[in-house]
Specification:
The complex is a heterodimer of chains A (264) and B (306).
Chain A (H helix, E strand, L loop, with lengths): L3 H8 L1 H20 L1 H6 L1 H8 L3 H7 L8 H35 L2 H6 L5 H34 L5 H29 L2 H21 L20 H6 L4 H24 L5
Helix pairs in contact in A: 1-2, 1-8, 2-6, 2-8, 6-9, 6-10, 8-9, 8-12, 9-10, 9-12
Chain B lengths: L5 E12 L2 E12 L3 E5 L6 H8 L7 E6 L2 E2 L5 H5 L2 E5 L10 H11 L6 H10 L12 H13 L5 E5 L7 H16 L3 E5 L3 H7 L2 E6 L2 E7 H6 L3 E7 L9 E9 L2 E8 L3 H9 L4 E8 L2 H13 L6
Parallel strand pairs in B: 3-8, 3-9, 6-7, 7-8
Antiparallel strand pairs in B: 1-2, 1-4, 4-5, 9-10, 11-13, 11-14, 12-13
Chain lengths: 264, 306
């Protein structure tokens, strides 16, 4: 237990293993479902019969024909954001206001450990856990591919995994930044839920609700167009947006956490 | 006034919450090797002062210096290299065992030699192999105390340090403070146990309603107790001129008079010489707690029996 980064990972080991296995299982399940989606033409008819708003939840039917776009549409575009939202809220709230409420941030601040180091160590632990979450999802997909005896261009998984990692880091850093900057659990949780759920609803329903379209860019998921990424289109602007969000909220944490009163 | 060789210098420290001053223009200094007790009732401002010293809180106004350098939340970690801290309600890292916690703390202080830690473990015998979250409050408290002293810091700040300890461990704690005092460690401790503070501290700071109302040598408080006099007579008598806390009762066949007396024993003897028709007389030491209450009364015009 030499440093705070390792201590944080040790504290979160059950969380990491649990979420890692869970996401691997989701990746595996969605992959082995592909033959059923791919071959069942009746499913096309069923989805076409759904109202437009619900079709947004299911994804574009054209994307079901190819394995890469199927994974982009059904796994990374619909399900992964839901899981990532829960993961990042639990993780970032727990490491910031959760620990402060328990008085554990004070113990750290009472040691010869700068507040800057506390921010950096905890944030690096979040980054590590987000990377593990993405890698485990990819690992689940690879196992699923072996089971259904399908192959997939490695770069598809690299692109989807990389953007998934950036999305989760950006989302977690927003909550992390607010948590460390304010120390207020209610506010931090509210911001996390608002950004995650708001983004999901905005992106999902924008295709069916015309007045939502102008606001779609406010959704953090807007910059993770998984089906397009699966097809090979990676917009550099999306990466810049996630990087900017991460830098801004990390800077917020650095600046305000250094100066404010600690609770607990 | 900041003394040049002071380890702790607090000058007009004020912390305001929601328009109310939790501490108001508190000033004191602690020089190297002093063991200073910080006493006050709940909500008096003890923890706010200690949290400000540690850089957990940003002062609304005033200056704190530790080891000659100004302390603010953003730079407090610099002074923590020479400082140990423990509090009675410390929330340690529940997922770690005591061993892992000491290892973590040792790395923060770049501690190579664990002999002091081992000595303290032998002395306090905490359970080091179980997760801290599963330990009793007393065991957690032992671990917090060991962690505060294990790096041999120049200054140790303790907030109600022995509140979770059983009487045997409280005695061990007092012995630890005495040995640290002999080793030249500067200690600033708040406590609910006045006897403990009197026992180990050379000075006592008394805080009430956020204001520091007294800074006295502990010997003065110890001697300040005076005598508690209980006298029963057939006829009603008047107490001596210097008596305080006077209580009179009529009982079957006589009168009871109880008072505290801080003037000289000779004067008390002289007054007793004039008492007639005596039935019973008891003279005992006035308790330190009572002396503390007297002090509160003296400084604030109120009596508080905590």
């Amino acid at each position: 237990m030499r440093n705070l980064f390792m201590k944080t990972l040790y504290d979160k080991r059950v969380f990491i293993i649990g979420w890692g296995l869970g996401l691997a299982f989701v990746g595996y399940l969605m992959t082995i479902f592909y033959p059923a989606f791919h071959q069942d033409n009746g499913l096309d008819q069923l989805i076409k019969s759904l109202p437009p708003a619900l079709q947004g939840l299911v994804g574009n039917l054209d994307n079901l024909k190819e394995l890469s776009t199927y994974l982009g549409s059904q796994l990374f575009n619909v399900r992964i954001p839901i899981f990532l939202s829960v993961l990042t809220i639990l993780l970032a709230v727990g490491l910031t206001v959760g620990e402060e409420e328990k008085g554990q941030i004070r113990i750290l601040a009472g040691l010869p450990l700068s507040r800057r180091s506390i921010v950096l160590s905890k944030w690096l632990a979040i980054v590590f856990i987000c990377v593990v979450a993405s890698l485990m999802t990819i690992a689940g997909i690879l196992v699923g591919l072996a089971v259904i005896k399908e192959t997939l261009d490695t770069m598809v998984l690299v692109r989807l995994g990389s953007l998934m990692t950036l999305l989760s880091i950006a989302l977690a850093t927003i909550i992390f930044g607010v948590g460390l900057a304010t120390g207020k659990k209610g506010l931090t949780t509210a911001v996390g839920v608002l950004v995650a759920v708001g983004s999901f609803l905005l992106t999902t329903f924008a295709s069916a609700v015309s007045w939502l379209v102008p606001y779609e860019k406010l959704s953090i998921l807007h910059y993770f167009p998984a089906p397009d990424i699966a097809k090979g289109t990676v917009d550099g602007m999306n990466i810049i947006v996630y990087a900017a969000i991460t830098v801004i909220f990390l800077a917020l944490a650095f600046i305000l956490f250094r100066r404010r009163d600690l609770r607990g | 006034m900041i003394r040049p060789f002071s380890i702790v210098s607090v000058d007009k420290l004020t912390k305001v919450y929601g328009g109310r001053a939790a501490i108001d223009a508190v000033s004191f200094t602690i020089t190297k090797g002093e063991v200073v007790g910080f006493v006050g009732l709940n909500g008096a401002g003890k923890s706010t002062t200690i949290n400000s010293l540690l850089g957990f809180l940003r002062p609304s106004s005033g200056v704190i210096e530790l080891f000659g350098k100004r302390v603010l939340p953003e730079n407090a970690h610099n002074s923590h290299k020479k400082l140990g801290f423990a509090s009675g309600d410390m929330s340690l890292f529940t997922n770690l065992t005591g061993k892992q916690y000491f290892d973590f703390v040792a790395h923060r202080y770049h501690l190579k030699n664990m002999s002091k830690c081992n000595d303290l473990v032998t002395r306090f015998e905490p359970d080091l192999d179980k997760k801290i979250g599963t330990l009793s409050r007393g065991n957690k408290q032992k671990i917090a105390l060991i962690a505060a002293f294990m790096a041999s810091p120049e200054l140790v700040i303790l907030d109600e340090p022995s509140s979770g300890l059983d009487p045997l461990m409280q005695q061990l704690f007092i012995e630890l403070i005495r040995s640290e005092r002999e080793a030249g460690t500067t200690i600033f401790m708040s406590s609910h146990y006045l006897n403990e503070v009197i026992d180990v501290c050379s000075r006592i700071l008394l805080i009430r309603d956020g204001k520091l109302i007294k800074d006295i040598p502990s010997a003065e408080l110890m001697n300040d107790g005076g005598k508690l006099v209980h006298i029963t007579t057939h006829h009603e008598i008047l107490p001596p001129k210097d008596a305080k806390d006077i209580e009179k009762n009529q009982i079957e066949g006589g009168f009871e008079l109880t008072f505290t007396y801080k003037a000289t024993a000779a004067k008390l003897q002289q007054w007793l010489g004039g008492v007639t028709q005596l039935i019973d007389l008891t003279i005992s030491d006035h308790t330190i707690e009572a002396a503390f209450d007297d002090l509160y009364e003296l400084e604030t015009g109120e009596v508080n029996h905590a």
